[in-house]
Amino acid sequence: VGGWREIDARDTLRLARAGAGAPRLGGLAVLGRRSWDQAAGIRIEFLDLDPARFTALLPGGDAHELAAWLIRCYLQQDLDVQFLLQPGSPRAACT
Questions:
Q1: Which Pfam families does this chain map to (predicted)?
Q2: Residue 9 pLDDT > 70
Q3: Long-range contact pairs involving 21-24 (C-beta distance under 8 Å, separation at least 24)
Q4: Cα 23–chain centre separation
């Protein structure tokens, strides 16, 4: 999942006269205060959830904090994480 990343003020450059060692746009220098990072995050899809599991995975639900903690421990890097929760279709009862 892509996203915008802010460029830290310490990492900004000033325009200078052309010469050896001067940064060039498109190399290590970019124009602006933020840049697009195509690998800024991930999306985790929880599909076909029964109503109880769906509710438990919502923020504030019983399973939400555990799921977030497991993902943070596994990734061990700064990524944006999106949860996509999709409830399952109601089951038809045959009588």
A1: T6SS_TssG
A2: yes
A3: none
A4: 30
